[in-house]
Write a structure and sequence with these properties.
The complex is a heterodimer. Chain A is mainly β. Chain A is built from no helices and 10 strands. Chain A is globular, with a radius of gyration of 14 Å. Classes of the chains: A mainly beta, B mainly beta.
C-alpha cells in the first residue's frame, strides 16, 4: 500500500559550512557501524565505517564519531558542498556478527549554494 | 569494493503480472546477496538474503511465495515479484558484500504496479 508519508529529519546548511548528522542506534551489542549516502533514485553509497573499538575515524572531508555509552553515532562533513545533498543513513550490524546492516531512519541534507 | 549492477532501473507492470529484477555482481563472486525494499521517504528494509545454490532466507513478514529469489550463480541473483499488486510498488535494491568490506548496493529498481 501507500507509504504513510513520513517526513525525514532535514538538515539545511549553507555551502562551505560544516554539517553534523546524528544517529541513535538501538543495539548495545552492535560492533560495526556504517554511514551511507543515498541520492535521489539511486542506491546507497558507502561513505565511512567504524568499529566499536574506536571512537573516531576520519576520511576525506568526513569524520564519524561513536559514543557507545549513549549509543550515538555522528557524521561530520567538512566544507559541505551542493553535491553532498542527499539522504544519509547510519547502519549498525545486526547482533550475532552476521554483518547484515540494519538501517536507521535517515536524514535529508540540503546544501544551499 | 564490489560493483553491483541492477536491471531494470524502472518497470511498470499491470496488477496480477510478475516482474523479474536482476542483480549482478560485476567484479566479485558473491555467495550471498541481499535484497532490500524502500518506500518513499523511508529507510531500507531487508527482505531476504540470497544464497548461491540454496534457498533464500526471508525476513519475518516477507512472503517467500510472492517474492521469489533465485541465486543460480556467483554473480547473479534475481528477485521475481509474482502476481504484483499496487501495494508492491516500491524501490527494490540489491546489495553485495565483498571480502571484509561493507555492503555495496545496486542503483535500485523502481517498480510501479498499475
Amino acid at each position: 500500500g501507500e507509504s504513510v508519508g513520513l517526513h525525514l529529519p532535514t538538515l539545511s546548511v549553507q555551502e562551505g559550512d560544516n554539517s553534523i548528522i546524528n544517529c541513535a542506534y538501538s543495539n548495545s551489542a552492535s560492533d560495526y557501524f556504517i554511514w551511507y549516502k543515498q541520492e535521489s533514485g539511486k542506491g546507497p553509497q558507502f561513505i565511512i565505517d567504524i568499529r566499536s573499538n574506536m571512537d573516531k575515524r576520519q576520511g576525506q572531508r568526513v569524520t564519524v564519531l561513536l559514543n557507545k555509552t549513549v549509543k550515538h553515532l555522528s557524521l561530520q562533513i567538512a566544507a559541505t558542498q551542493p553535491g553532498d545533498s542527499a539522504v544519509y543513513f547510519c547502519a549498525e550490524n545486526r547482533a550475532g556478527g552476521s554483518y547484515i546492516p540494519t538501517f536507521g531512519r535517515g536524514t535529508s541534507l540540503i546544501v544551499h549554494p | 569494493g564490489a560493483v553491483v549492477s541492477q536491471h531494470p532501473s524502472r518497470v511498470i507492470c499491470k496488477s496480477g503480472t510478475s516482474v523479474k529484477i536482476e542483480c549482478r555482481s560485476l567484479d566479485f563472486q558473491a555467495t550471498t546477496m541481499f535484497w532490500y525494499r524502500q518506500f518513499p521517504k523511508q529507510s531500507l528494509m531487508l527482505m531476504a538474503t540470497s544464497n548461491e545454490g540454496s534457498k533464500a532466507t526471508y525476513e519475518q513478514g516477507v512472503e517467500k511465495d510472492k517474492f521469489l529469489i533465485n541465486h543460480a550463480s556467483l554473480t547473479l541473483s534475481t528477485l521475481t515479484v509474482t502476481s504484483a499488486h499496487p501495494e508492491d510498488s516500491s524501490f527494490y535494491i540489491c546489495s553485495v558484500r565483498g571480502n571484509n568490506s561493507p555492503l555495496h548496493f545496486g542503483n535500485g529498481t523502481r517498480l510501479t504496479v498499475t
